[in-house]
């Protein structure tokens, strides 16, 4: 598929650890995959709605809905099983982890059943076979009449995609580059940073249909049909579910519904492209703003409470308290937040079923707590030791000294640093989009995919982030001035 697999390595590591701790389901001969779905009455499907016409979002009756070829296939499978369909949107790098950790029953996201992926998941039969193409600028049609003319040129593909692997294999004499998102590739092509973009045929057709400056040429890869087939992924050992999905796919092929689904998906693509003004998508950005604000506020509040607890433990004379606090702080500060978010959602989520938004808040709060703890520790260490001695000479206990003398003065000194942490949380919380939390970055990617516009949605989100952080900074400065006058 033409989507990035940046999260795939992290996903593999995550699954390894969850398996090590016994948190993943059994891939045994005792297969109850189909029975569990029917008993629950719900088919949970993981997808990444930023790849039209396979999957995208559109506004229907004022509500955002998932549409596309893959969504229609999932609907048919759910209908044949006699259960409700629940779409779980997330970053493409997380869809396979979702089924490996039991968060979803199947993943349908334009997945190509490669040998590498078959090592960790099972696949249905192929339900769609497309082709590989190159997008070029229309003015270069005479220059690049066929793919052979691209040898020695600048070619870009999506990171970790099938197109990336094919370009490395067949165009090793060209200058190859990769990016995470398809809209970024198109933007680079339009600005002549690259000469061609390797992309899947249906996606290329959608771009050409809605961008008069682009054209496409066949990639001419051998065994193209076999390499670009799309299938549905499920957890290892889910034979009963695979058989049921294959029956639905047979029905779809028998009635030639794939072409029908693609035609319907094309209508939604046309509708989205008909009005690409950012005002049309205001509710996307508004919902992203609300979720980003909610995550930041709750994460900072609980982060401060956790930070106070951690610093008290770290400064304690009891090693049984100091060592775990020190270890926690070092581990959290020494690992990427992306890994922490994945671990909370898929690792902890394998034990406790929690929504993506809740998991995102928990992960960001746990991360913030470690940094706040060090900020508070620095504030405490900055105080004159005479403060503690004076309090104790007045008969204050250690607890009262810390509560009424040390911490109030420390917080006054570290207020600017805490403010910076709050601002950082607002920006860094964007990483939760990888598990499907509809924050500003998640909505940004959806709007870019739906409108085929590369820059305008970015500008809108930049302005929103700036207004958020600027307003917060002014508010924090106000309280700082009040504290300095007291």
Task: Walk me through the structure.
Helix content is 58%, strand content 14%. With 486 residues, the protein is of the alpha/beta class. Strand 9 (154-158), helix 6 (162-170) and strand 10 form a beta-alpha-beta unit. The longest helix is centred in the middle third of the chain and has 33 residues, at 282-314. It is globular, with a radius of gyration of 26 Å. The N and C termini lie far apart (61 Å). Keywords: Amino-acid transport, Cell membrane, Membrane, Signal, Transmembrane, Transmembrane helix, Transport. It is a multi-pass membrane protein. It is found in: Cell membrane.
Layout of strands and helices, then pairs:
Layout: H1 6-20, H2 33-40, E1 42-47, E2 56-60, E3 63-67, H3 69-81, E4 84-89, H4 92-100, E5 106-111, H5 115-118, E6 121-123, E7 128-129, E8 132-137, E9 154-158, H6 162-170, E10 175-179, H7 182-190, E11 196-200, H8 201-209, E12 214-218, H9 224-227, E13 229-235, H10 239-254, H11 257-274, H12 282-314, H13 319-333, H14 337-347, H15 356-381, H16 385-393, H17 398-428, H18 440-451, H19 456-485
Parallel strand pairs: 1-4, 1-5, 9-10, 9-11
Antiparallel strand pairs: 2-3, 5-13, 6-13, 7-13, 8-11, 8-12
């Amino acid at each position: 598929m033409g989507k990035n697999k940046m999260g795939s390595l992290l996903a593999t590591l995550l699954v390894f650890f969850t398996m090590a701790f016994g948190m993943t389901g059994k891939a045994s001969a005792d297969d109850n995959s189909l029975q569990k779905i029917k008993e629950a009455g719900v088919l949970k499907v993981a997808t990444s709605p930023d790849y039209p016409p396979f999957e995208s979002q559109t506004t229907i009756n004022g509500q955002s809905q998932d549409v596309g070829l893959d969504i229609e296939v999932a609907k048919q499978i759910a209908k044949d099983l006699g259960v409700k369909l629940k779409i779980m949107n997330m970053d493409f790098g997380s869809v396979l982890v979702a089924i490996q950790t039991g968060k979803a029953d199947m993943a349908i996201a334009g997945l190509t059943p490669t040998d590498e992926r078959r090592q960790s998941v099972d696949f249905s039969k192929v339900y769609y076979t497309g082709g590989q193409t190159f997008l070029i600028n229309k003015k270069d049609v005479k220059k690049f009449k066929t793919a052979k003319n691209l040898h020695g040129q600048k070619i870009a593909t999506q990171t970790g995609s099938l197109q990336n692997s094919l370009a490395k294999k067949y165009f090793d004499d060209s200058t190859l580059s990769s990016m995470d998102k398809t809209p970024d590739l198109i933007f680079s092509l339009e600005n002549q940073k690259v000469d061609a973009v390797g992309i899947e045929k249906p996606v290329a057709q959608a771009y050409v249909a809605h961008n008069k400056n682009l054209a496409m040429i066949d990639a001419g890869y051998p065994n193209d049909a076999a390499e670009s087939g799309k299938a549905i992924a499920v957890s290892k050992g889910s034979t009963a579910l695979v058989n049921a999905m294959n029956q639905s796919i047979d029905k779809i092929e028998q009635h030639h519904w794939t072409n029908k689904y693609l035609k319907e998906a094309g209508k939604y693509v046309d509708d989205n492209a008909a009005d690409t003004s950012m005002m049309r998508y205001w509710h996307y950005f508004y919902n992203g703003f609300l979720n980003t604000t909610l995550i930041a506020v709750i994460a900072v509040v609980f982060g401060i409470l956790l930070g106070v607890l951690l610093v008290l433990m770290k400064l304690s004379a009891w090693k049984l308290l100091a060592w775990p606090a020190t270890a926690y702080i070092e581990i959290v500060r020494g690992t990427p937040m992306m890994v922490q978010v994945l671990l909370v959602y898929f690792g902890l989520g394998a034990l406790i079923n929690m929504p993506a938004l809740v998991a995102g808040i928990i992960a960001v709060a746990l991360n913030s707590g470690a940094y706040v703890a060090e900020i508070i520790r620095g504030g405490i260490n900055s105080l004159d030791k005479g403060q503690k001695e004076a309090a104790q000479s007045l008969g204050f206990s250690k607890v009262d000294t810390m509560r009424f003398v040390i911490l109030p003065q420390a917080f006054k000194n570290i207020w600017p640093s805490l403010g910076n942490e709050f601002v950082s949380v607002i920006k860094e919380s964007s990483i939760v989009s990888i598990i499907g939390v509809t924050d500003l970055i998640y909505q940004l990617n959806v709007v870019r995919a739906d409108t085929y516009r590369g820059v305008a949605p970015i500008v809108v989100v930049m302005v929103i982030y700036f207004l958020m952080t600027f307003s917060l900074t002014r508010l924090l400065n106000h309280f700082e001035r009040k504290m300095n006058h007291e």
